[in-house]
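Cont'd.
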Amino acid sequence: MDSLTSSAAWQALAAHHAETGEARLSDLFAADAGRFERFSLSAAGLFLDYSKNRIDPRGMELLLALARSRGLENAQAAMFAGRRINTTENRAVLHVALRNRADTPIEVDGADVMPAVRQVLARMGEFAEGVRSGAWTGHTGETITDVVNIGIGGSDLGPAMACQALAALGHPRLTMHFVSNIDGDHLAGVLARVNPARTLFIVASKTFTTIETMTNAASARAWFLASGATEADIARHFVAVSTNAGKVEAFGIDPANMFGFWDWVGGRYSMWSAVGLPIALWVGRDGFEALLAGAHAMDRHFAEAPLEANMPVILGLIGVWYRNFFGAGSLCVAPYAQALARLPAYLQQLEMESNGKSVTRDGAPVEVATCPVIWGEPGTNGQHAFFQLLHQGTDLIPVDFIAPLAASHGLADHHRLLLANCIAQSKALMVGKGADEVRAELTAQGLSGEALEALVPHRVFPGNRPSNTLLLPDLSPASLGALIALYEHKVFVQSVIWGINAFDQWGVELGKQIASRIGDELAGGAAGEHDASTRGLIALAGRRLGAAA
Ligand code: F6P
């Protein structure tokens, strides 16, 4: 394959950008009465309007040609076929198998993974229904009221985001808690609010070695035993989600209380596996299966739709267009749904841990910028905080607006105003406000002369700022499943264009190793070799810890 930037497809895009990159969105709409229909599509129940992007039909054709020239279709087929596309870890990448609702086998090295997937799913469903119905009780015979998921990264963000998103459907007796941070404030804050006899802890860790999770789990266990419970009672209150049965047993959790998954499930792609147990507890077996079904519908769309009508492909290519041809360094995700408050954090891990890479699959330096910074907050809150910068700041920051069309609550009028704001913001970013319009407005307010002119530049909006709008029918499990699968596949599409492995995360290792050594030093171990800054900080922290001990 040609180098990316010297390929004919890339060169054609660069030329097209040079020619059309400054075109005004308003002019593109004025010139094409069918632009909204041309640049919007539905898939798996979701509707994507991508017409407010600085791209014309020829630009889309060229992006699609780039995708084909980078072998996207083969890469998709390789993933769905269970090939070991995560080459640096020699693993298949099969989160799609976890939500495969068809009867079709999915194989890794000739072995169908589906029987094991179905078996764990059935066990999860049975366990979740037992807790929800009250058949599963704590050691004193009381029903469970609080579920505390202890995990971090992919073993936290997916279930935490989804349980919040589906809050309207949660079991009324249960309160879900998510403890991830090694900062003891996190666990202590939750333990202060729960009753040990009525609490179920889920220790979720793919590896069962992650220091944050193991530390929190050990403290939770000690707290539970200190309440007067016995070792034997642990079986009613602690379950594990992991790929590492040996470590689970060594920790003291009965393997019968372990829900397994497999090395071909990446941490940030794992909410569909047993890592989703909190979701199943919260919305029940049927709700969890509906989430899987929504994701599966998006998988089928991704695998089967032609590239030009393929939602994840379009979303991914538009992202490449801004990142590489406009130099956009970040993407703002603005869910117009308070229940999706954790979605930006979830997508940060999904996108930035997947595509925050600077070498290609062959180990060569990448030729172009890769993953942008992903950030955001729910609308309308963001409007009263950082939207100023989106509208009048110096950077081009594309925005993904995400909104459910139906509300999950019964409060009159809120949803009309919410949706109005969502639609208004994408329009305002696009059309802006020119100096003449500002002058007319200020004149109507009675200003004139120098006072008026002094204000004009401050009140001009440059406009031409791009966005996607994704509409969900509602915040149901199926819609949420489709939404998350959409972003997963978008990330994959971008990784194929950039030629990188989206499924490893070596970049998190160095800090972990150094933290472990510094932790030993702070416990009184031998001093390591450090620069003056690190040495000084260790000394300060050591003195403070020593004084507190
Ligand atoms: O440190 C990064 C990471 O490995 C993530 O990729 C992962 O989701 C998280 O830590 C938690 O890992 P585990 O599930 O093995 O505890």
